[in-house]
Design brief:
single chain, about 280 residues, alpha/beta, Rossmann fold, 2 domains, four-stranded antiparallel β-sheet, 8 helices, 14 strands, globular, binds adenosine-5'-triphosphate
């Protein structure tokens, strides 16, 4: 990735508003995107001229305080909300509407159809999207095998653990062969222990499947753990504050002093503490 006017700090941190020049391997380009909600009384600017690129295989995290426009940005990438300024391109094509190339994975408790088995849950969206029954069943079986749930093919969601449900949800999304998976605060409602298990599960699935992920959170620790790259957004309206490489962190070193120092530095950026920010 390259910028016209970068201010690059040590350990892979780039700050400030940047103009993107698409890198050769970039998959998704967000170019100067301003997003607004029009209500009868107000015009709410959710993000202002936000620019970044996502590369194939990134675990890209959108991080920022409540109300900075992370979910709105994800909705726009999904194609549900057109920018009022700027554009979003996937593989060089402008995003205009939702499509099977961008799969949204919702919170674990509301995403699977309770009256369908694991196999039926994974095959269902394929069939709805016009894939023949035989091919849908075959693709579903392959993905279920990849997420290690073959033994649970004919089981209903209520009989699965949270981690297994997440695997089914990701298998279902991946069976559509999307270019990118979108996750909006998927673990926000979970207790700390379960949340950590789900995060580890997601990381191990990524190791196996190497999908491109865009993940929204307002937890700094979660961002550093899950992300290979983090976009730090300013408070409302969201603008790019920094971009940080965090590919060196995962479950194995989440208790290390380096991990804690990176979190502290991001905290400084978010809350304006210059001492910890640099
Ligand atoms: N449907 C809507 N109509 C009007 N304003 C909205 C709507 N949805 C969101 N907003 C406003 O847009 C801004 C960005 O909201 P958004 O939900 O994208 O933020 P967020 O960073 O995801 O916050 P959180 O972390 O709390 O989920 C906020 O000021 C919010 O109040």
């Amino acid at each position: 990735m390259s910028y016209q006017d970068p201010t690059r700090l040590d350990s892979g941190i780039t700050t400030g508003t940047a103009q993107s020049v698409a890198a050769p391997n970039s998959l998704l380009n967000i170019n100067g995107v301003t997003l607004q909600y029009k209500t009868p009384e107000h015009l709410v600017t959710a993000t202002y001229r936000v620019t970044f690129d996502i590369h194939t295989g990134d675990r890209f995290v959108l991080l920022g305080p409540s109300g900075c426009g992370k979910s709105t940005l994800l909705k726009s990438i999904a194609g549900f909300m057109p920018p009022v300024e700027g554009d979003i391109e996937l593989k060089g094509r402008k995003v205009k509407r939702p499509g099977p190339d961008r799969a949204m994975v919702f919170q674990e408790f509301d995403q699977l159809l309770p009256w369908k088995t694991v196999r039926e849950n994974v095959a269902f969206p394929l069939k709805v999207n016009g894939v023949s029954k035989d091919e849908a069943d075959q693709r579903a079986m392959q993905m279920i095998e990849k997420v290690n749930l073959t033994k649970f093919l004919d089981v209903y969601p209520h009989m699965l653990s949270g981690g297994m449900k997440q695997r089914v949800a990701i298998a279902r999304a991946m069976a559509m062969r999307p270019d990118v998976l979108l996750m909006d605060e998927p673990y926000a409602a979970l207790d700390a222990l379960t949340r950590r298990k789900m995060q580890d599960e997601l990381l191990s699935l990524w190791e196996d499947l190497r999908f491109t992920l865009v993940f929204v959170t307002h937890s700094i620790e979660e961002a550093v753990l899950i992300g290979t790259r983090i976009l730090v957004l300013s408070p409302h309206p969201g603008q790019v504050r920094a971009e940080i490489n965090t590919h060196q962190f995962d479950s194995r070193n989440a208790d290390s002093p380096e991990f804690a120092a990176t979190c502290a530095r991001i905290r400084g950026m978010l809350f304006g503490d210059a001492e910890t920010a640099h």
